[in-house]
Design brief:
The chain is of the alpha+beta class and 271 residues long. The chain starts with a helix and ends with a strand. The chain has six helices and eight strands, in the order H-H-E-H-H-E-E-H-E-E-H-E-E-E. The protein is elongated and about 110 Å long. A five-stranded mixed sheet has the order 2-4-5-7-6, covered by helices on one side. The chain has a three-stranded antiparallel sheet with strand order 1-3-8. The protein is 56% helix and 16% strand.
Amino acid sequence: MSAELDQVRAQAAALEQMLEIYELTVSEQSQKLERQAEELRRSNEALEQYAYVISHDLQEPLRMVAAYSELIAERYRGKLDETADKYIAFAVGGARRMQELINALLDYSRISTRGKDFARVSLDEVAADAVQNLSVAIREAQAEVVREPLGAVIGDRIQLTQLLQNLIANALKFRSENVPPRIRIAGALEGDGFHLRVSDNGIGIEERYHKRIFVVFQRLNPKKYPGTGIGLSICQRIAERHGGSIRVESEPGKGSTFHVVLGAGRAAESA
């Protein structure tokens, strides 16, 4: 009996030792993950600050280049040959384009650094604001925007308005030539998060481009569709800041549906 008891005690001691080793390993791994997360946070902050400083410092000299290019274009238009006029026009267009890109980069870099504190936000009001801000473009495109009841979330109202506004503007830009644009905004609570959907009947997107469209400054057809190519990248940053994600379901000629998931803890029960 004594031998059996000693054996049980030995097994218990061995198990206890294994448990201590396991707890130590888990603790070490947890600390390692925390250090990596902190390093990643600092790295992201540094990159955001770097992008902001670079963009901000470029503004003034570029503003001077743009101003003098436009002055030359106005003063000497028609006084030189056609080739000179063309080159001046290229310089003016390039300066304006660079200003657009820098301003877009500033907006992108400020998503995390200049965001407002999270609070209870009515997505119905957010959608109404986004539609109102684009009322002229919607009217000119003869578009129909259908808004289903959405409810409320916890988030940054200005950024969520920007997200929806970018998605609606995207639908207006890439509309079909055959039918008037029809855009539907819908969503529902899913667990403790919120699933927002913006659907359109536009030209659609090939599957191979479904991830590429969220990359900064990526434009699939820059000659036909003007813009900076940063709108969807900003949407992605906003979704990520709200603990969520964004993706698209689309086929050429069959429109697109953008799915925005606002992450865990971001949903509220009622507006």
